[in-house]
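Annotated sample (chain length 838).
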Amino acid sequence: MAAIAIVLVSHSKQLALGVRELAAQMVQGQVPIAVAAGIEDSENPLGTDPIQVYEAIASVFSDDGVLVLMDLGSALLSAEMAIEFLPEAQQEKVYLCEAPLVEGAIAAVVAAGAGGDIHQVMAEARGALLAKATQLGVVSRPLSVVSPITTNIESPTPEIQLIVSNRLGLHARPAAQFVATAARFQSQILVQNLTRNTELVRGDSINQVTTLGVRQGDELLITATGSDADEALAALQGLFANNFGEDNVALNHPSAFHHKVTPATHGELSGIAASGGVAIAPVVHYQPTHIAITEYHVDNPDAEWQRLQAAINTARQEIQAVFSQASLQIGDAEAAIFDAQLLFLEDPVLLSAAHQRILDNHINAEAAWQAVVDQVATSYRALEDSYLQERVDDVVDVGQRVLRLLAGNAAANLHLESPAILVATDLTPSDTAGLDPTKVLGICTTSGSATSHSAIIARTLGIPAVLGVDAQVLHLADGTLMALDGESGRAWVEPESDILDLLAAKQEAWQTAQQEAQATAHQPAITRDGRQVSVFANIGSINDVQVAVASGAEGVGLLRTEFLYLDRISAPTEEEQLLVYQAIAQVLDNRPLIIRTLDVGGDKPLPYLRVGFPEANPFLGWRGIRFCLDHLDLFKTQLRAILRASVGHQIKIMLPMISTVTEVRAAKVILGEVQAELNQAGISFDAAMKVGIMVEVPSAVAIADRLATEVDFFSIGTNDLSQYVMASDRTNPRVANLVDALHPAVLRMVQQTVQAAHTAGISVGLCGELAADTLATPILLGLGLDELSVNPQSIPGVKQAIARLSIAESEAIVASALQQDSAEHVRELISTSITSPA
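Output written by the structure step:
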């Protein structure tokens, strides 16, 4: 069988991983599939990287051929560039294919899994979109994407006729099973949908089988010609006999996501189990404000188009804020829901249609926008795929947000006075993402499904939810006691005492399990041989600090203050900064807070503070402390705000991008001047506040012993240190692979810094991305770091990794790691060296 490999190149890592998972399921993982998607930039993760594509191709390379599928734009350029990095002999075996990413990947893996050669696999991939077009009625003829069908009508041909009973017919997975089975035999398998009166198509072609549009109840004719025809038909008949391994619950369209069941007992309602857990609380109704639209004539359509564009821009900012908060609260994967909403707002077809309506019909922005949104929603509802139908929620969510802004209405926030169960017809993803789990104890709606985005968010937030219950719940008075069990999908109105007792016991058991899971994150991180390592959080907003504390952070090791200066037309005032620093310190409740002074320049320019001339090498230019020392008004304002916020809190100042002793002394002189000014004005501050520096420039490592006598602590920034040590711009795809913090050269720099700090009696932490990589934890422990500072979501995992290790074994791993010749070898060493806890 041919060992064809597939490489998926996409701007979105999440999209590519999802496509790989779907494609792999079609062939039970028999076909190698590699992914090269997204870029390492937390601010703008969408993009493609030629080095990543090259590595993906190399990881699955096969002499039988590698098929590369790309999504759009720069993905093609990255793939072309990646091939240039391969040896010439390998370049000839790599095929770039213009087929659609999702459909092409599924068709390609099925063809590869069936033993097709690279040209057959490419043909199947290319025909994938035609198959979908035929199924949707866009193409009315059967496809012959592999080869024409030839039959000998003079000799009798073995055949079987079957009724398709599995509930979704030959959708993607059953179709893949059918094709894979047909391909195992020498005989030519042909199949026809008698119910739809299609022509015969090849059974070993996923595209041709898909064009049959087979649904539950359809009758198929399957023929086989060849030496093993009877065995082939028997094998195919077996697939149908067990419904392709799927359950055969009848799919009644309305009840798929509007589930209404007669109550089983008094006060009991049955629904869809969407998010586990038990809730017992009074109900509160939630009715989101629906914006009513009136169409009217306008004399100035250009002004209306400007109004709509302004509302869309504001909506984009709101959704980005929701996206940022959701990323911290529910994780990046679930927050991608809002990434999709942003793409909806940027859809050129949709925007063009709205613009055209305003210009052609001279109608108001609201009416034009509503019309195009309704059109998109209707197209989703018409699809047979229930998952895609549920994306209507997101379309409506975005549509209503823009209409609200056009109407000049403020965002509706749900603020509950006391804990309650939320009862509603439905909740949008935006509604759900904004819920406070301490106040919203449960969710009960009359519509929705377990795969809706709202249900996914509810599960991630840990809010029990029962959806699709009888509409009678909408008539309950606020304050009525309700109980719900999100695991069984049942709810009780004014439950009897015996039901309450059972649910209370289940709730207690559930909460105990949850608390135990969370408790480890709130315990100190102590190695098996008794060394405690502080685990702090890197944060960049007020919202982040709440998530950090909830995740078990013992303090903040890095507050990036740049968020205060971005997305505005002038620098923040002293008072604005003071309020933010105080608010963050308040949440930390006397835990340490390390505030890094403004670190702009390089890849973080400020629009209102122009350099004045383009820098050829901005990463080697006017950035960090260099910038602040040249903008004393800006620097002093920030220092005053930090000093004023320090009263009663454990705040420390950290200076970024230090490369000389002179810079540290200059900054300390300015800090002394600000302290003197505050003293003179009678304004209090913490006179003993500690000052530290970021160690992220090789010169700082080289003179770490001298710098350690000037400051109270070090924090190693491995993101920048790696690129400076390796002389490689991490934003340049041709060399970005060299920027690896586990390279022995970088690790030796970290070791030298730690030794200098400890010799001088000061503490040293690490706040680069390396700290969150649990594979690197034994290295960091062995190097003797006192503190690791990571993104809030990584805290529990890092603490668990520390608890599984001992300092002795970690030091042994480091000793060997420092002698390796590449980051890859360091990783291999770590993977083979970790022992299980005794």
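Annotation: The longest strand covers residues 278-285.
Annotation: The chain has 31 helices and 25 strands.
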